[in-house]
Amino acid sequence: MKRQSNTLAIDRRHFVAWLLACLTTGVSPGKGMAYSTTDENNTIKVAALQMTPRLGDFSANMEQAEQLIRQAQRQGAQWIVLPEMFTSAVAFHPDMLGVIRPIEGAPAQMMLRLAQQSGSTIGGSFLASVDGEVRNSFLLVSPNGDIQRHDKDQPTYWENCYYQGGADEGVLTNPLGQIGVALCWELIRSRTMRRLKDRVRLVLSGSCWWTLSDDVDIANPLRLINLSMLQDAPVHCARMLGVPVVHAAHAGSFKGFFSPDLPDIPYDSSYMGESMIVDATGAVLARRSAEEGAGTLVAEITLPLEPKPSLVIPQRFWMPDTMPVPWKTAWVRWLKSGSHYYKRVTRDYLATGKTNDYTPEYME
Question: Contact 249/218 with Cβ under 8 angstroms?
C-alpha cells in the first residue's frame, strides 16, 4: 500500500471483485465515483459514524465499525467517515500495542470489501505498521480499489507512545477533486488550515477527543472549555476553508492510566462525541452528542467549485484562543516523553512481538 501521493492503482483482481460485487448487489458500477470535478457543484450524501469503542479491543471495534458502515450504506450514504483510530480508540494502556495492524491488513481489507459491495467511498484511521514504524494512518478507500493515505502529522499527549507523526500534506486526489484530511487536534492547528486552503473541496475528519479524568470535579470550567474547542473545530475548519467538513468521533467511557512514568495511576474518563456534518458556510447540518452514543449521521452536502472562506486563519500555532497554557505546555512535553516510550517499547514490540519493561528516561 502506497502513500497518498502515489495512488494504489486498481489491478485486474480488484476490478473483477468490484464488478462482481456491483452486479450481485444491484449497485451501479459508477455509484459513488462518477462525479464531475470541473463544471458544476457536486451534491453527495455523506455519513459521519460515531462509535462507542472498547479501548484496545480490536475485534469488538472492527465489528462495531462494520455494523455502522452497513447502516450508513442502507441510508444511502455515498461517502462514509469513521472516527480516528476506529480499531482501538486511545489511552495509555498495555492493550494498545495489540491493536497495531499492517497498513494493508484487516482494517484496510474490511473497508475495501464494504466499499466494493456497496459502491461507497469509506475513510478511517487506525494504528498501522508501515516500514518498521507505526503511524496513525487515515485510508480513503474507493469502490474501484483505489486506496490513498494520510498520516496524522503529530500525536497528542499519550498518543506519542504508540505512533510517530507523518509528513504528507493531507491532500488526497479523487474523481470529486482534491480531498483534505485532518485528524483530531490537526483541526485546531493553524498550519493544517494553511496547507489545505485553496486546495480542497471537502475535509474528512475523525477524532478520539477525551475529557478530564473522572476524579476531576464535574463543574471544573476546563471541561466546558474542552467541549467548546471540540464543538468549534469542525465549524471553524469549514469557515476557514470554505468547504464542507465531515467529522466522525468516539463517545463513551474508558479506563486507562496516567502515563508511562505513572503507569499504575488510573486515568478513567470518556470520549466526547460531537460527530458533525458541516456545510461550506459553517452551518451544522447534523450533530451527535456523546450522550447519544453510537450511531450514524447522514446528510447531503454540496461541494463548491470555488470555496469562499468566511473566517481568517489565525497566525498563532493553536487556533483556539481559550486553550489553556498548561495544555499547550503538556503537549510539547509529551512529544519527548511519549517518544521515549515509543522507541523503547512500541518499536521493539513491532519487531519482536514482546513487550519490554519500561524505564523512564530520567531514571536511565
Answer: no
User: Quick one: average pLDDT of 84-102?
Assistant: 98
At 362 the pLDDT is 83
Distance of alpha carbon 187 from alpha carbon 230, whole angstroms: 9
The Cα–Cα gap between 231 and 274 comes to 7
- For residue 242, report the phi and psi dihedrals to the nearest 5 degrees: 70, 30
What single string gives the DSSP state of each residue in 273-318? EEEEEE-TTS-EEEEEEGGG-SEEEEEEEEE-SS----SPPPSSSB
DSSP lists the bridge partners of residue 286 as 277
pTM as predicted:
0.90
What is the C-alpha separation between 201 and 209, in angstroms, rounded? 25
Sole residue written with cell 524505564: 359
pLDDT at 12 over 70: no
Amino acid, res. 291: E
Joined together, the cell numbers standing for residue 204 give 474528512
Q: Contact 160/337 with Cβ under 8 angstroms?
A: yes
- How distant, in Å, are the alpha carbons of 69, 133, 136 from that of 183? 19, 19, 9
- Write out the H or E segment, with its range, that includes residue 127: strand 121-130
Do the strands 147-151 and 251-257 form a parallel or antiparallel pair, or are they unpaired?
A: unpaired
**Chain segment 34-60, per-residue pLDDT in tens:** 333 444 568 999 999 999 999 999 999
Class of domain 12-25+41-363: alpha beta
CB atoms within 10 A of CB 339: 17
Nearest to 356 by CA among 129, 96, 347, 186: 347
Beta bridge partners of 94: none
pLDDT of 179-233, one tens digit each? 999 999 999 999 999 999 999 999 999 999 999 999 999 999 999 999 999 999 9
